[in-house]
Amino acid sequence: MATNRTFTMIKPDAVENGHIGAILEKITASGFRIVALKLTQMTVADAKEFYAVHSERPFYGELVEFMSRGPIVAAILEKENAVEDFRTLIGATNPADAAEGTIRKLYATSLGENAVHGSDSDENAAIEGAFHFSGRELF
Ligand code: CMP
Questions:
Q1: pTM of the predicted model, to two decimals?
Q2: 19 is catalytic
């Protein structure tokens, strides 16, 4: 059965470009409740571990460098059907393919720097949320 939580990051490009407020507004206006939230920065080691599933992909080095180059906003979000609904809200991985009105269409600049992360399964949402937050940071 689907759980009702997902994990997201506002990535360094969107933070650098001043989109934190607009993205959080779009998330909450779309019916997601913020369960946990922080401004933080991943070390190179953190990013390597977080994206270990992509370690054999040609873009892994670029991805690790990008995700550790500046602050991110990490959040756990709650809503019925959270994983799927959030992926609809953010749009396709490549902003060129993202639907009008989606967060990536509005705020992402490229496939590599695509503004936001959204978990792809309930299992990964739990793993990724636990990577960034302790139990006492969830509300
Ligand atoms: P996301 O799905 O949040 O997490 C994995 C990221 O890898 C993905 O977003 C993209 O930003 C990035 N990515 C996927 N495919 C490529 C690619 N071909 N070149 C560069 N980056 C990529």
A1: 0.96
A2: no
- Model confidence at 81, pLDDT cuts 50, 70, 90, reads very high
Catalytic residue among 19, 54, 117, 132: 117
Does the annotation flag 59 for ligand binding?
Answer: yes
Sorted by where each begins, the domain ranges of the chain are 5-137
CATH for 5-137 (3.30.70.141, 3.40.50.1370, 1.20.1260.10, 3.40.50.720)? 3.30.70.141
Q: Name which residue sits closest to atom 21 of ligand 1, judged by CA.
A: 112
Cβ–ligand 1 distance for 59 under 6 Å, the answer yes
The alpha carbon of 30 is separated from its chain's Cα centroid by a whole number of angstroms, namely 16
Q: Ligand 1, atom 18: nearest CA belongs to which residue?
A: 59
